[in-house]
Every structure is written in structure tokens, then in C-alpha cells.
């Protein structure tokens, strides 16, 4: 069963998805559902015996179309809506081991093109208002499958974090229309590049930075240098530059402490209008580690008040990441 | 001019905003979208702000200077106001106070207020002139009047100049602009008649046919929403010219009875509209018609679309184009580049198949270059630029 229940205090939807309870939990490597199906072997999610990049609908979707009718009645304060939309799994590679960083460069570039195609395709579905491309990696963020993969949620509404960022961007550009001169993130990028202390790396089209206002110690934002609002607006050479930059971030993370560094990676792209703004395309990495051993838990202040306490200096964390960044090797 | 329009995403506001924009004024819509629709102001600047929150009001005034405010945001259901007066005081008086305070801070001292003929209450005399006593008989009228009084005293003390427009019933649409009436809940006569004509409501109820009027049903004044929007612009120009604060009634001059409107709707739609006569509603006076002589004389305003058929006809056309109001599916494509569905980049192929349980599975294929090393990391030089 799944449906949307309105949270009238926070004024946001809660997705009730009880069928997700019985999700696969860390199957042994020889039963990975994301590996290709071995001839004569146990079938996986992917019947082919080999593939390059594969995308399929999640078996336990939070959103689907057509959506089941909600099984509960609304209350006077909480409307209930069917959980329309889509949930997809993107298998980056047929190889069970590895990560975004270990894909060969051409493959990573194609992955960016696949994300672009998914964004375009899902945005064209009538019930979809927002497409969230993300990756959860590592047990620290609750990942049950280690095969390199990401996910896509196509929402029937603009989710609150995106909405808030877009509203801030709309306020910033004010009556001036949306463009590079009036864009909050273009301005932020200028501030970061002028200062330089928090920039981790940059190439011809993207900049990786631990932003001035980082909430997590090793938070990295990969920001498009050109004012674009979605993957669909970047050129082929920018797609390559994005692939290299994302790989660079993950590689630096993994080198930092010598183990695969858990993270949540989220792409922030344009919603479907009507919306406060289209926004400026960027990718956020939110890793839970504070130190090699310690995790940052979202506790009283973060969960209860929505205020993050970052007990590290973004300037220092950026320097640490720069130190393990691999240049042209 | 640079104009802030509160409630600009609502029925009347969206028409006002469109006309301002068309004549070249800079418009910022300020609306909490509680009743309004973002789709009604597509392509224009919309600041989503709730006037009941001073911080949000302050935000709405950023990036000024602003020359004037047109204030249409309000709670405006008579019945609801009797049950929930607190909501009306908050939305129409408290919010109005925050608005005026923000105007004061930002030195904006011109305001056009969309008031209502409900400030008069049940006057005996028709047509109503502006000097008629104001004795509202419900919290909606009382709170709109309270704001008018605030305007007056702010004017005396702080130099605010304002025009207050008092009118009764508004109808019609602007299908050419994609604008129409989409109230939820709908309490207005014309859209309800059209709902019945479309089969979305079972029948139309006439509340009382034993009034002392020629056909026994209540007589009301109707203004076409575009004529009303014109009046807002004229009021703004009057103030921009340095004109003094003023209250104006707006109306058609002659009214239409409920039965006349019903019959016009049947003629325009050509559909069957089942009708039924119910009891009178408390507080409904038999005749409400405004005398708008003053507005005609001083503002040069004249309703150019006085026929009730014309109003119904435009509303009907909009309804046929927008059977679900502003909630029809949004047009696709967030950005010019994101249109279409099927442009794959060179070298990328996509094959889709269905799994036994109906879920889709897509293989993406591309020419594979064997990597010259097992893995690559970023090529990007470290350090700041
Ligand atoms: N429709 C009529 O027949 C009629 C008749 C007389 C007077 N009026 C007046 O005209 C004005 C507009 O009427 P309408 O029919 O277009 O109504 P509407 O409900 O369509 O528009 C009002 C708009 O104000 C917004 N709003 C309400 N409270 C707000 C708040 N606290 N902060 C920000 N925005 C808020 C709503 O979202 C909506 O978009 C109202 O002030 C009403 O009193 C209307
Ligand atoms: Zn696997
Ligand atoms: Zn930008
Ligand atoms: Zn209405």
C-alpha cells in the first residue's frame, strides 16, 4: 500500500509505503539482483547475460503510475492523494564491484547521458512535476545493495527541499527574470571561486566546492559553471566534464580514509512549471562521516529543529579533499 | 510603473495583472496560492508570500522601489466569514496591517484596494451611492470595511493615498488570455450555472422566488471581470496623477435577476440546466445595485461589456477550454532543451522491454572503448581557479 498523507504542520507530503517493509536486505554477492543473469543461474532483475547500463522500475516503488487508490480516508486536516509517479533503479555497470569512480571514463560519460534521457523521459509524463536523480552509497546511509547503482524518483509534486531552494532563487532574481546575472548560484559560484579556499576542483564546465554554508563536514557541491537548469541543457563536452567531476569527487572520498566513503548524492534540476524558478543545476554530495570512525547523526538539533551543526571548517575539509584529489594521472 | 499585486493569482487579480503587464507596467504578483493558481500568472513574477506573516511581506517588497500596490488578497466567502470570523480578521485586517506597514517602511504610498459592496450591508436604497451608511451584516463586509478605515487614518497621518473600489458580483473570463474563474469552493452564480450545464452539479438552486421584484428572484449587479480590471488600472492612474484618496462604487447601472441570469446561461450554453427553487438565504437583500456615476465621472470608467450574455459566454468558452480549471495537466518540458521525448545523443541506444510483472526494463547501449587502464579518476587539476 502506498499513498501521500499531508503533514499539515510542516505543510508537506509524507509518503506512506508499507510494502517497502519486506525489501531485500543485503543478499549475498552471488545473488545480487543487479548483476546480469548468469546463463542457467538464478534470474536477477536483469534477464540479459550482459549489459552496459540498465534501468528498471523499482520493485518496491514509493510512487507508481497508475497509482493504487489510497486505502485510508483523509482527515479534516490531512488530504490523502494517490502516490503517482515513478521509481527507477539505474545500474551503472554490470560489474558487481566498484563505484561511480571506477567506471571507465567513456562509461561514466554515457551514464550522464542515460541520466539525461531519464530526466527528459520522466519529465514528459503528465503526472510528474519533479525528477530526483540520486545515489545512496554505503551501509551508513542504509544501502542494502552494494552493486554500483543509483535511483530516480519522479515526484507528482515539487519536494520541499527543491521547492525551498527554488523559492530562494526566485527571490534572489526578483523581478529581473532568471539568467546568469540574476542567479543566486551563479553569484555563489563567483564568491567561491574568488575566495578559492573551499574549491576542491574545477574543470572547464563544473566546479566542486565545499560550500561556505556546508552542513556536513565533507559536503561537496558540483555546480555547473554555465547558468543551466538541468542535464538536458548541457552540451556533450559538458556531459564529459560532469562525468569526470563526479568521478573525481567519489575517487577523492574513497582515497580520504582508504575505504568506500558512504554518501548520498542528489541532483538538483529544474521542476516542471508552474514553479518559483527553474534554478541552477548542481549536484550535492552529502556524506555522513565526520571522521574516519565517526558518523554525523542527525539528532535533536538537526531532526528536531532543522538546524545543522557542522563542527568542522569547510575551508579545512576542502583542503583535505584537494590533497587526495588525483589530477592527470 | 512598478506594481505589487497582492492576490494577483486569484480570479480578479490575474486579470488585473494581465492588463498591467500588457500595457508595459512591471508587475510582481504576491500571493500565498491558498486560493489562487500559479498557472494563472504563468510567465510573470510570482512571489509566494502569505500576508499574515510580516517576514514574508517584507520579502515581497525586496528589489524595489515599488510605485504602488494593488491589494486584492482576501478571504471573501460571506458564509464562511460568519462561521470563522477569526480567519477574516486575520486575512483581511491583520494581513492588511502588515501590508500597510511594509508600504510605510518602503515608502510606497499609493494603494488600490479591491473592496466590496458588502461594506454597505442591507441598505434600503438602490442604487447605492458612496455616501450610503456602511453597516455590514457579516464579518466579510466588516473586515473589508475595517481595512478601508485603516486606509483612511493612514492617509491622514502618513500621507497614504488610496482608492477603494466597492463592487458586487463579478463574472466572465478572458479565454484569449487563458484566464477564468476557478474558485474552490465555488460560490458564484455564473460558474455554478456552468457546472450544472456541464453535468458537474446536479441542479441549480434559486434561493427564494418570493422577493418583491418583478420575477420574484433577487436582483444583483454584475460586472465583467475585464471591466473591473480596467477600473483597477484607472484607479491606479488616478493616484499616479496625484489624485486624492477616493471611494468608488462599480456596477453595471442596472441589475439582473437570478432568473434572468439563469435563462441567459441556458441560451448561451444551449444545454439543459435543471433548476429548483429553495428557501431564501438569511441576509440576502432583494435588490443590490451600485450607482457608479462617480467612477464614470472621475475615473472615466465605463463598463464596455455590460451584457450578462457576454459575461456568461466568455466564462463558458474558458470552461470548455479548461474543464478542470487551472488544474489541467501542465504542459511538458521545464526548459526549451527538455522538450520532445526521444532525442538520444549520438551513439546511445535504448531498448525497452517489459518484465513478467509488467515493470519496464531499459537497456542502454553504446560503443565501448576499452579503457587503457583499469580505472580513471577525475582529470581535474586540484586547487582553486
Ligand atoms: N469575486 C467577486 O465577485 C468579488 C466581489 C466583490 C469583491 N471581491 C474582492 O475582490 C478580491 C479578489 O476576489 P477574487 O474573486 O479574485 O478572489 P480569489 O480568491 O480568486 O483571489 C484572492 C487571492 O488572494 C490570495 N490570498 C488570500 N489570502 C492571502 C494571504 N493571506 N496572503 C497572500 N495571498 C492571499 C488567494 O490565494 C487568491 O489568489 C477580494 O479582495 C474580494 O474581496 C470579489
Ligand atoms: Zn551485482
Ligand atoms: Zn545560475
Ligand atoms: Zn467564484
Structure description:
The complex is a heterodimer of chains A (329) and B (385). Chain A has 329 residues and is of the alpha+beta class. Chain A has a single domain (24-59, 85-323), classed as HIT family, subunit A (2-Layer Sandwich). Chain A is built from 6 helices and 12 strands. Chain A is globular, with a radius of gyration of 20 Å. The mean pLDDT of chain A is 91. Chain B has 2 domains: 2-321, 3-Layer(aba) Sandwich (Rossmann fold); 335-374, no CATH class. Chain B contains 10 helices and 16 strands. In chain B, helix 4 runs parallel beside helix 5 and helix 8 (258-269) packs across helix 10. Chain B is globular, with a radius of gyration of 26 Å. The two termini of chain B are 43 Å apart. At the A-B interface, strand 3, helix 1, helix 2, strand 8 and helix 4 of A face strand 3 and strand 16 of B. The structure holds nicotinamide-adenine-dinucleotide and zinc ion (3 copies). One zinc ion is lined by residues 180, 183, 185-186, 227, 280 of chain A.
Give the arrangement of secondary structure elements.
The complex is a heterodimer of chains A (329) and B (385).
Chain A: E1 2-7, E2 12-17, E3 53-57, E4 80-82, E5 86-91, H1 105-123, E6 130-137, E7 149-155, H2 160-173, H3 184-195, E8 199-202, E9 206-209, E10 220-224, H4 236-257, E11 263-268, E12 282-286, H5 300-305, H6 314-323
Antiparallel strand pairs in A: 1-2, 1-4, 3-5, 5-7, 6-7, 6-11, 8-9, 9-10, 10-12, 11-12
Helix pairs in contact in A: 1-4
Chain B: E1 2-6, H1 11-22, E2 26-31, E3 45-48, H2 54-60, E4 68-71, H3 78-83, H4 85-105, E5 110-114, H5 139-158, E6 161-167, E7 169-171, H6 189-197, E8 204-207, E9 219-220, E10 222-224, H7 225-240, E11 246-250, E12 256-257, H8 258-269, E13 275-278, E14 287-288, H9 293-299, H10 308-321, E15 349-354, E16 360-365
Parallel strand pairs in B: 1-2, 1-4, 2-3, 4-5, 5-6, 6-11, 7-10, 8-13, 9-14
Antiparallel strand pairs in B: 9-12, 15-16
The structure holds nicotinamide-adenine-dinucleotide and zinc ion (3 copies).
Amino acid at each position: 500500500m502506498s499513498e501521500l498523507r499531508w503533514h499539515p504542520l510542516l505543510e508537506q507530503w509524507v509518503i506512506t509505503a508499507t510494502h517497502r517493509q519486506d525489501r531485500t536486505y543485503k543478499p549475498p554477492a552471488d545473488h545480487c539482483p543487479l548483476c546480469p543473469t548468469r546463463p542457467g543461474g538464478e534470474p536477477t532483475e536483469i534477464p540479459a547475460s550482459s549489459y552496459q547500463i540498465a534501468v528498471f522500475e523499482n520493485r518496491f516503488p514509493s510512487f507508481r503510475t497508475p497509482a493504487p487508490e489510497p486505502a485510508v480516508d483523509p482527515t479534516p486536516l490531512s488530504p490523502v492523494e494517490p502516490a503517482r509517479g515513478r521509481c527507477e533503479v539505474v545500474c551503472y555497470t554490470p560489474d558487481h564491484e566498484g563505484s561511480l569512480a571506477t567506471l571507465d571514463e567513456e562509461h561514466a560519460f554515457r551514464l550522464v547521458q542515460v541520466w539525461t534521457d531519464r530526466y527528459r523521459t520522466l519529465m514528459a509524463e503528465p503526472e510528474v512535476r519533479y525528477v530526483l536523480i540520486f545515489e545512496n552509497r554505503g551501509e551508513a546511509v542504509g544501502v542494502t545493495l552494494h552493486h554500483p547503482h543509483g535511483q530516480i524518483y519522479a515526484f507528482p509534486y515539487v519536494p520541499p527541499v527543491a521547492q525551498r531552494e527554488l523559492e530562494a532563487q526566485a527571490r534572489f532574481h526578483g523581478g529581473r527574470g532568471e539568467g546568469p546575472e540574476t542567479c543566486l548560484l551563479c553569484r555563489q559560484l563567483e564568491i567561491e571561486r574568488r575566495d578559492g579556499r573551499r574549491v576542491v576542483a574545477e574543470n572547464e564546465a563544473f566546479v566542486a566546492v565545499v560550500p561556505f554554508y556546508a552542513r556536513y563536514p565533507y559536503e561537496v557541491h558540483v555546480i555547473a559553471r554555465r547558468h543551466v537548469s538541468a542535464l538536458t541543457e548541457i552540451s556533450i563536452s559538458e556531459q564529459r566534464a560532469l562525468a569526470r567531476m563526479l568521478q573525481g569527487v567519489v575517487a577523492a572520498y574513497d582515497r580520504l580514509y582508504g575505504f568506500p566513503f558512504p554518501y548520498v548524492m542528489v541532483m538538483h534540476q529544474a521542476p516542471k512549471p508552474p514553479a518559483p524558478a527553474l534554478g541552477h543545476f548542481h549536484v550535492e554530495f552529502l556524506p555522513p562521516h565526520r571522521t574516519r570512525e565517526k558518523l554525523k547523526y542527525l539528532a535533536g538539533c538537526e531532526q528536531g529543529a532543522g538546524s545543522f551543526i557542522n563542527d568542522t571548517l569547510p575551508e579545512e575539509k576542502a583542503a583535505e579533499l584537494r590533497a587526495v584529489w588525483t589530477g592527470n594521472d | 510603473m512598478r506594481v505589487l499585486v497582492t492576490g494577483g493569482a486569484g480570479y480578479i487579480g490575474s486579470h488585473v495583472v494581465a492588463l498591467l503587464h500588457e500595457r508595459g507596467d512591471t508587475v510582481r504578483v504576491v500571493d500565498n496560492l491558498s486560493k489562487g493558481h500559479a498557472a494563472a500568472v504563468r510567465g510573470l513574477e510570482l512571489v509566494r508570500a502569505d500576508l499574515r506573516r510580516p517576514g514574508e511581506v517584507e520579502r515581497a517588497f525586496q528589489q524595489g522601489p515599488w510605485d504602488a500596490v494593488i491589494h486584492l488578497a482576501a478571504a471573501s466567502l460571506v458564509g464562511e466569514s460568519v462561521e470563522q470570523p477569526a480567519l477574516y480578521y486575520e486575512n483581511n485586517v491583520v494581513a492588511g496591517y502588515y501590508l500597510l506597514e511594509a508600504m510605510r517602511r518602503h515608502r510606497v504610498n499609493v494603494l488600490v484596494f479591491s473592496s466590496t459592496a458588502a461594506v454597505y450591508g442591507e441598505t434600503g436604497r438602490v442604487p447605492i451611492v458612496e455616501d450610503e451608511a456602511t453597516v455590514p451584516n457579516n464579518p466579510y463586509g466588516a473586515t473589508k470595511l475595517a481595512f478601508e478605515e485603516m486606509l483612511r487614518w493612514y492617509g491622514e497621518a502618513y500621507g497614504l493615498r488610496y482608492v477603494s473600489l466597492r463592487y458586487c458580483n463579478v463574472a466572465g473570463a478572458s479565454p484569449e488570455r487563458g484566464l477564468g474563474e476557478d474558485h474552490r469552493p465555488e460560490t458564484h452564480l455564473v460558474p455554478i450555472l456552468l457546472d450544472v450545464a456541464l453535468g458537474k452539479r446536479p441542479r441549480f438552486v434559486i434561493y427564494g422566488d418570493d422577493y418583491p421584484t418583478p420575477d420574484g428572484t433577487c436582483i444583483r449587479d454584475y460586472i465583467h471581470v475585464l471591466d473591473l480590471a480596467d477600473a483597477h488600472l484607472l484607479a491606479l492612474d488616478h493616484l499616479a496623477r496625484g489624485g486624492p484618496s477616493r471611494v468608488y462604487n462599480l456596477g453595471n447601472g442596472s441589475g439582473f435577476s437570478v432568473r434572468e441570469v439563469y435563462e441567459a446561461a441556458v441560451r448561451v450554453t444551449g444545454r439543459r440546466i435543471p433548476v429548483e427553487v429553495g428557501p431564501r438565504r438569511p441576509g440576502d437583500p432583494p435588490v443590490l445595485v451600485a450607482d457608479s456615476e462617480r467612477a464614470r465621472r472621475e475615473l472615466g470608467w465605463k463598463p464596455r461589456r455590460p451584457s450578462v450574455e457576454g459575461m456568461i459566454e466568455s466564462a463558458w468558452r474558458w470552461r470548455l477550454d479548461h474543464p478542470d480549471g487551472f488544474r489541467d495537466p501542465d504542459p511538458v518540458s521545464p526548459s526549451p532543451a527538455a522538450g520532445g521525448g526521444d532525442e538520444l545523443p549520438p551513439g546511445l541506444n535504448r531498448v525497452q522491454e517489459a518484465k513478467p510483472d509488467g515493470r519496464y526494463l531499459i537497456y542502454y547501449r553504446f560503443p565501448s572503448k576499452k579503457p587503457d587502464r583499469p580505472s580513471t579518476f577525475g582529470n581535474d587539476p586540484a586547487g582553486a581557479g
